[in-house]
Amino acid sequence: MKRRPELCGLLLAAAVAAAPARAEDANDPLEPVNRVVYGLNELADVMLLGPVAQAYGELPSPLRTGVRNVLDNLRTPVTFVNDLLQGETERAGTTLARFMINSSIGLFGLFDLATGLGHPQHTEDFGQTLAVWGVGEGPFLVLPLLGPSNLRDAGGLAVDRLALDPWSELASSEVGLARNGAEAIDTRQRLDPVIQDVRRNSLDPYATVRSAYRQRRAAEIRNGRPPAGESSYEKIFEESDDGDSETGD
Amino acid sequence: MATARRATDAPLPLRRRLLAASIVVLATPWPGILRPAQASEPAQAIQFIDRLGKQVLDVLRDERLERSDRLERLTGLLDQATDLALVARLVLGRYWRDASEPQRREYTTLFRSLVLKTMADRLESYGGETYEVLGGQPVDDRDTIVSTRIKRPGDASAIAVDWRVREQGGRLLIIDIVAEGVSMVVTQRSEAAEIAGRAGLDGLLDEMRRRLSRTA
Questions:
Q1: Partners of residue B147 on adjacent β-strands
Q2: Nearest C-alpha in A relative to B93
Q3: CA–CA gap between residue A30 and residue A36 (Å, rounded)
Q4: Smaller CB count within 10 Å for chain B: N or C?
Q5: What's the Cα-to-Cα distance from A227 to each of A136, A239, B193, rounded to whole Å?
Q6: pLDDT per residue as tens digits for the range A50-87
Q7: Which chain B residues contact residue A247 at CB under 8 A?
């Protein structure tokens, strides 16, 4: 138990060292490998996950909402611990209240009554906690089957799954596999419009996913606040109206 | 600007410096002085987005409209409400500076065509979504962020969409759309940089042309 955090720490130190000098850099030294894995993931998606998710999407919406609610409820302990690790005591209170309400009168999480009672949902994970602690994102990674990530978030995912998730013992049981499968299908189904849109309208889907992943994670780390005011974002809009006086890099 | 460049030379006498300063002040666009709170007043930007949202929903919901009419009206709204030329330039980033005049013209035309193609593509996916304007936040003396939530029928969760609105010569124009923290300008800029970095600006233009000719 002692060893794992140290190894993680080492990996993360490497990640910080590899952090980009310029925020706008793609920070993708493994791009050739990442593109291959991305292509394989796309193939797996077109052949298996996509069609399954599409079939799942045909099920009645209340049923899918129920599945989503159960999965969200199973996630709340991980969110709760990470709320606390980030010093967000108020949000931790909200997460705890959600778990108590939805696990009891919400029938094991099937109904999300907590939102209506003033405890809206949010999620946290260890990758976000590391970011709050000041760890840089590290190089961009495309994980087999799991999709876009980076060194920090991949490490965070491992910590969430192996150390912080109270149901981690079940991971390799049928229950655990069913949960992971349902999570994958449900997430894929909800993302379907975005995925189809990127495939149809993007000039380079890989570059789009890479940029969108990074921005999305940054927004989650800011707990949903828009990027306005962030220096790398504001810099884009600084140029004056004549078009030629864009500030150099 | 002029004063900053001069500063590296011998210091100017006080009188000339005052003169230079007064020229800078006089050269500042008048609206900025007469109505200093104008651009940072979010009420107008909020109203602008709210009105645009209503117009778009009217077009999407009008079942008497043919698809082509619908597209035409949305294109009109797009042209009237966004500074597409500026967005195109921001997306191209540093490659804009090195581009020749014909390249710039071609790129801007292709960019607009791609936006229209994407809009036409997305038209099919309208499923009764509604929106709610949450508020506005000034960023600087010309830009304001208007925050909205897009709600799908039968779905408790909503999508957070922020609109960056710029005041330009008394007009309000959208220059970026940020959905759940993902900025359209940032994403497309990174995409353009990836392709132009690999294949040059001409390679990017080729790719845009190829994408336009593809029907799928």
A1: B135, B162
A2: A236
A3: 10
A4: C
A5: 17, 18, 20
A6: 999 999 989 988 888 899 999 999 999 999 999 999 99
A7: none
